[in-house]
Write a structure and sequence with these properties.
Three copies of one chain form a homotrimer. The first copy, chain A, is α/β, with parallel strands linked by helices and 355 residues long. Chain A folds into two domains: 3-114, 3-Layer(aba) Sandwich (Udp-n-acetylmuramoylalanyl-d-glutamate--2,6- Diaminopimelate Ligase, Chain: A, domain 1); 123-303, Hexapeptide repeat proteins (UDP N-Acetylglucosamine Acyltransferase, domain 1). Chain A is built from five helices and 40 strands. In chain A, the strands form six sheets. A twelve-stranded mixed sheet of chain A has the order 8-11-14-17-20-25-28-31-34-37-39-40. A ten-stranded parallel sheet of chain A has the order 9-12-15-18-21-26-29-32-35-38, with no helix packed on it. Chain A is flat and about 80 Å long.
Amino acid sequence: MSIEQENHHPGDSRFFSKSGPYTIEYLVKETGAQLTPPRKDVDTVEFSGIAPLQVATSTEISFLDNKRYLPLLAETKAGLVIVAPAFADKVPEASAALVTSNPYLVWAKIATLFYPKDKAKPGVHPTAYIHPDAVIDPSVEVQPFAVIMNNVHIGKECIIGAHTVIEQGVQIGEYCRIGNHVSLSHAVLGDRVTLYSGARIGQDGFGFAVGDKGFVSIPQIGKVVLQNDVEVGANSTIDRGSVRDTIIGEGSRLDNLVQIGHNVQMGRCCIVVSQAGISGSTQLGDFVTIAAQAGLIGHIHIGDHARVGAQCGVMSDVEAKSDVIGSPAMPFKEFFKNVAFLRRMAKSSKGKEDN
Amino acid sequence: MSIEQENHHPGDSRFFSKSGPYTIEYLVKETGAQLTPPRKDVDTVEFSGIAPLQVATSTEISFLDNKRYLPLLAETKAGLVIVAPAFADKVPEASAALVTSNPYLVWAKIATLFYPKDKAKPGVHPTAYIHPDAVIDPSVEVQPFAVIMNNVHIGKECIIGAHTVIEQGVQIGEYCRIGNHVSLSHAVLGDRVTLYSGARIGQDGFGFAVGDKGFVSIPQIGKVVLQNDVEVGANSTIDRGSVRDTIIGEGSRLDNLVQIGHNVQMGRCCIVVSQAGISGSTQLGDFVTIAAQAGLIGHIHIGDHARVGAQCGVMSDVEAKSDVIGSPAMPFKEFFKNVAFLRRMAKSSKGKEDN
Amino acid sequence: MSIEQENHHPGDSRFFSKSGPYTIEYLVKETGAQLTPPRKDVDTVEFSGIAPLQVATSTEISFLDNKRYLPLLAETKAGLVIVAPAFADKVPEASAALVTSNPYLVWAKIATLFYPKDKAKPGVHPTAYIHPDAVIDPSVEVQPFAVIMNNVHIGKECIIGAHTVIEQGVQIGEYCRIGNHVSLSHAVLGDRVTLYSGARIGQDGFGFAVGDKGFVSIPQIGKVVLQNDVEVGANSTIDRGSVRDTIIGEGSRLDNLVQIGHNVQMGRCCIVVSQAGISGSTQLGDFVTIAAQAGLIGHIHIGDHARVGAQCGVMSDVEAKSDVIGSPAMPFKEFFKNVAFLRRMAKSSKGKEDN
């Protein structure tokens, strides 16, 4: 089969194993969503999987979360579609609608029923190197060529990916998933922490003084704390603290290629999208969102529920619940007003200015 | 020898092995470029190598592709210089000119004659871990500590770098080159695909719903398709699809530290320069160029042959063949007009505004 | 102990081993700083460690470098505080003040006394793969699963981290520290070079010509030279030269996730902060600072002591000693004047423009 003939239906069996099928009754019960309108076969049909609107079949479940895709809803063959109340009447007649105020959450729950997370397969691969003074729960899975040094503690049912290196003294809670090629040092992890491949956690921060003959490194003697349910994306980097700790608060999620400087302290359920960077000693409250490629200077404070837009350059404190964008950062409304004003003014100067 | 005394002539024999020498007749035949003016010894001289204008000798070949370097052309000792027709008469008398409308392409061809790509040295290094259910062509080279899991297929004459991890079910075509420390999962690769060191391909996209107690992950059940001749730079990250596939089209090239979100679909021969990022579900046509550090939001479409400038922030569709820059993105001309207008206006307000 | 109860005092003994204690006499002698005012017990007290102002105890040393933290100075319990002359009289009565014109440098020196760098523990881990033609000083430490290929030379007392791959012909000076998971090829390193985990040094630059059927790679036949005392951050990427060398000058420091294109030549003691990128063939003088997320196009020159601001987009040469910011780059003063002017003008147009 050539690559052009690849089947693009999700859940390719080469990579994923599927659970189910599930009855509608079970799915309604598990998600709390409401079935409407009832279809004749609602009691007997078994749903075998999930798929996007454009490829789903009559025994598959799909969802609509972005009104941009309403044209696809009109043509879907999905047997069941998860939608918000506003779109319930847009679901085609041949499909049932599973209505909920949070379609994406119901989709998450149903998708997880069909594709539950892999569990740890207890055991240490014979090629891994484990220091005799490491303490590893027997339920932990350690993959090929992992390196686990002295006085590391790893709690139950963790998965330690191939080629990952865990340095002396690192503490890891339960049910954590550490990807491949991760570097982990000077760190304490809570439960259910997920680190994707190539994440670098705990290296020295970028700290040095200027001496007579060049730069002089400053020992970085803090650590990294990743609280429960934190996720860190592929190839992201989190420096350990210089004299305090770098702390990523409970439930926060960092995307790929994110940089976190030393001493950064982040509250609960923050989101940091790919290629954003947070400089040293900056503090984030809870539920802060930092969009892609945004950058924050050091030693500032971002209030709870603040949202920092993509590519934003933040040079001073941001108040709770505010939305900023631009470089330097300003309120969303002001930024777009400025942009529109400048475009209009420059355009109207055309006759006079062009040469 | 101290590091200050390093020889900066290219092709250092510690790192490169050189083919040749080649006669001018052979080089002309292989490249289709035209020799002018003929030199007396054109039939007998053998060229032994290539070098930049400033260090090339009389048996070496050089090239001029950027008029910025014309002063170097005037002083070169190179025996042969590849140039565009416009610069043919600028080549010094002691050198011959190899004239072509595409000097950089001819340079590529000649450089490849002297420095052909390494071929796979068939065999699996004894330290590698190969799952018994992997299917690997006997011509493949597998370097130390590579990990290849069950049901992976690898076609002929591929090179799998040291410490690379290839997860269950991954399909790799022929003549692919996978660097060191690569993580590769949930992926199907065509022929002649090149992945540089530290690339992360196929991990979960950044997809989660907001639940009562925090974020809820959404199983990501698509895959990554890298079509023929795709190249992915060092430490770049390509997330697998959520419900569709993430697709990088034939011949496209991604530089280092690039981020590609889930479900991105890229056409043929696109270029994505270092540290650029493309958010989930965005689609690129063919021959699109995304310059360094540009960022594209999700769910938009970039037309064929469009060019997105460095650091550009793209928040909406871009038409085919258009050039955009700025954050938010606008046409090149408008952007630079706005910049010039603002600078002029702010400057002229100097007397009144300064305090 | 749950993660919430973690002790955030620096120097956690699970990760760090501490030297000392030290007398004030010794510290004054080692640093050249001046003790003032003298305390009664100055001759007899021994200082046992270092800590930030808010947690330091009477036998610990702290420092103030940023006036933002003056409120913490007023309340500190530290026995000794390193300060600039201007703040000497702000040190609480119960503390002694160690006064110096460069508090951060004195802090670096004292911190290094308490936490000296780890020394190489001579020996090759039995799981490492060393090619028989590699030449490694017997004082070198080689950690698990490192791969060192033919004709690599490594000088005395280097540390080669777990899982690092050093390709054919690479030359490494003395006292270098190579982190985990580093890829190192086509490179010559001076003494005391530090590479953090996941750094990719020496891969092909992003060089290709446009042919009839797609892109044609150009062999990259230069190398990477990292001079003495260079540091490269985690997951940063430095491409080798195409026909010249990529050179990072003595004492320069690159932060995490930095991209350096082929043929870049950087002078002495430059600083490149995280997520910044420098395109091919650009040259930096000495003591240049490139702030976070800045981007430089190729083939330009940045003068000595120039400073490029965060997120700056540099499209042309920058003069020595100048400060630029913005995208496109302009002088600091002009940039902020433009920003202020636009905000004011757009605001004053409010009545007329809003709809």
